[in-house]
Specification:
3-stranded mixed β-sheet
């Protein structure tokens, strides 16, 4: 689930990171108002995904992780979807009417909503655990760290895809 170094991410760090993703994704995906940039975001890169697909992956994952944080906070013994901890279980399809601008607007809303949820989590609840369907457990803190990892990993991959389809 987490890459090296993520074990050092505090809840406060996660809030800051989540609040920076909208600006950073917009800078990577739409540095200038140009139709060529939007077309480039739709091109499939060497890994078989487009930059827009990766942004949609971040959106879907963040929505799922915010719900998981909510479930941990309000449910005594929650069971979470496997995609909370396993990236291979994440499959988010885009709607045919999705545009780069609409996805960037959604990133702004979803990233800030998740930042608010992380910020609102009482400090005593960070070690709370949940069962992951299919096996294993996770904590509220691990979920916040995964949100940061998803943002960083997908942004890095977006930059690679855009460079490759240039």
């Amino acid at each position: 689930m987490a890459e090296q170094g993520s074990s050092q991410v505090s809840p406060a760090d996660a809030v800051v990171a989540m609040r920076t993703w909208p600006r950073r994704y917009r800078a990577a995906l739409a540095p200038i108002a140009d139709d060529r940039i939007a077309d480039k975001a739709l091109r499939i890169g060497p890994q078989g995904v487009s930059a827009l697909d990766l942004a949609i992956n971040s959106l879907g994952t963040w929505v799922l992780l915010e719900k998981a944080l909510h479930d941990i906070r309000v449910t005594e013994c929650p069971t979470l979807h496997p995609a909370v901890t396993e990236s291979a279980a994440r499959s988010w399809e885009s709607h045919p009417t999705e545009t780069l601008d609409s996805v960037l607007d959604q990133i702004d809303d979803v990233a800030n909503s998740l930042a608010n949820a992380i910020e609102a989590m009482p400090s005593d609840d960070w070690p709370r655990t949940a069962t992951v369907a299919g096996g294993g457990t996770t904590t509220a803190l691990a979920i916040a760290r995964e949100a940061v990892n998803v943002g960083a990993d997908n942004l890095r991959e977006i930059e690679r895809v855009l460079a490759a389809v240039n």
